[in-house]
Design goal:
Radius of gyration: 22 Å
Oligomer: single chain
Low-confidence stretches: 1-105
Mean pLDDT: 80
Largest sheet: 8 strands, mixed
Number of helices: 10
């Protein structure tokens, strides 16, 4: 049986570096052990029969999870004992090797907390800016554990009840600033757990850059698609582990940069029920970080996607929209694309001059209906 005192000793080893492999990582490792044994993640906190207490971190663990993790945990403890003489750094490296590997190069997180207010590049904001209150909601910043650290995110959900259907909200090029937070609150008012992870957290803080060209060249262009897919998966795992989110009813929506990501994620996550992409580009240049675009994945989509586009969008040619429609038809995929005539890019961005109230309200209504129709409500 697992000797929990050894784990406590590891957690409290003198001279640990900052941000060591700590209690949540131990939990992740034990869950990995259960997955190897049972073929799924340990059900932490469910059917609880035994409580294990780490310092500063009370942790209820089901008896079945403990038994399932026993062999794997023994391997971890063996690693701990073998490295007592080598020091904590060597032990940290070896234990970390048991964690699931991501498909991108490890980077440090340069953004550890979300921006306050609106991004510098979009100011001054419009007088039409919509502000959604948090009355009746549980809303605010959270930290989401990823394969290589903690990522800040904003989440909003009804204060009572649940679990709620989950909607991933994917940012514009301006990151998770006030507009994205407000959209999360709007979704929460409709009964969702909406979560918006800061997907640029490793590459830079776009909220403090005033020049949009620099936002793109210095940060956005350096964000790998593989990293984004992995981080969105981590957000889904966080929602499920919270006990407040029903990830069997999972949807995603995104705007501008995030609109493209919606199409990609629909091809990535087979558990996704539906996606809504607001004016996300469909074609573009390819490179190592961005090997495919939505048009390339039309035949590989799992979940149905509703695309909402502006007919006067100078950054998304009408030709590319028609190509995507044709590819979806060839694949006999149930995704749909709506084009609003004489409508610019960013028509849902109520804090900018591009906002178009009628089209934005119609798009929002269509989005909620799409989620309901496809099992994400």
């Amino acid at each position: 049986m697992v000797e929990w005192q050894h784990l406590q000793n590891f957690i409290n080893t003198p001279g640990q570096p900052k941000n060591p492999l700590c209690e949540p990582c131990i939990l992740s490792l034990l869950a990995t052990g259960c997955e190897k044994t049972f073929g799924r993640r340990a059900e932490i906190g469910q059917k609880t029969r035994q409580k294990v207490f780490f310092p500063r971190f009370p942790l209820p663990v089901s008896t079945r999870a403990l038994h399932g993790a026993s062999a794997f945990a023994s391997l971890l403890l063996g690693t701990y004992i073998a490295h007592q003489e080598k020091g904590i750094s060597a032990m940290h490296d070896d234990l970390s090797s048991f964690l699931p590997k991501s498909g991108f190069t490890r980077r440090e997180f340069v953004v550890t907390t979300l921006a306050t207010g609106f991004a510098l590049a979009v100011q001054p904001i419009s007088a039409d800016t919509i502000t959604t209150d948090s009355q009746g909601l549980d809303a605010g910043e959270v930290k989401i554990r990823t394969a290589d650290g903690e990522m800040p995110a904003y989440r909003a959900m009804p204060a009572a009840g649940g679990p709620f259907p989950v909607i991933l909200v994917v940012q514009e090029i301006f990151g998770v600033h006030e507009h994205i937070k407000d959209l999360c609150r709007r979704l929460a008012k409709s009964g969702y757990l909406a979560v918006a992870p800061e997907l640029y957290a490793r590459q830079g803080d776009v909220s403090k850059i005033s020049d949009i060209r620099e936002v793109i060249s210095k940060v956005v262009s350096k964000v790998p698609d593989a990293q984004v897919m992995s981080d969105l998966d981590a957000a889904v795992a966080w929602a499920k582990a919270s006990g407040r989110g029903n990830t069997a009813k999972l949807g995603i929506t995104g705007f501008c940069w995030g609109g493209r990501i919606v199409w990609l994620y629909a091809a990535h996550n087979r558990d996704l029920k539906a996606g809504v992409a607001w004016y996300g580009r469909l074609v573009g240049d390819k490179d190592e970080l961005h090997p495919k675009h939505p048009l390339d994945l039309a035949g590989a989509l799992g979940a149905p996607v509703l695309g909402l586009y502006g007919g006067a969008d100078t950054g998304i040619p009408a030709e590319s929209i028609e190509k995507m429609r044709g590819a979806l038809a060839d694949a006999k995929h149930p995704s749909e694309i709506i084009v609003y005539p004489d409508t610019p890019h960013g028509f849902n961005a109520d804090y900018r001059p591009s906002y178009r109230k009628q089209q934005a309200e119609d798009g929002w209504k269509r989005m909620l209906e799409w989620f309901k129709k496809n099992g994400a409500a």
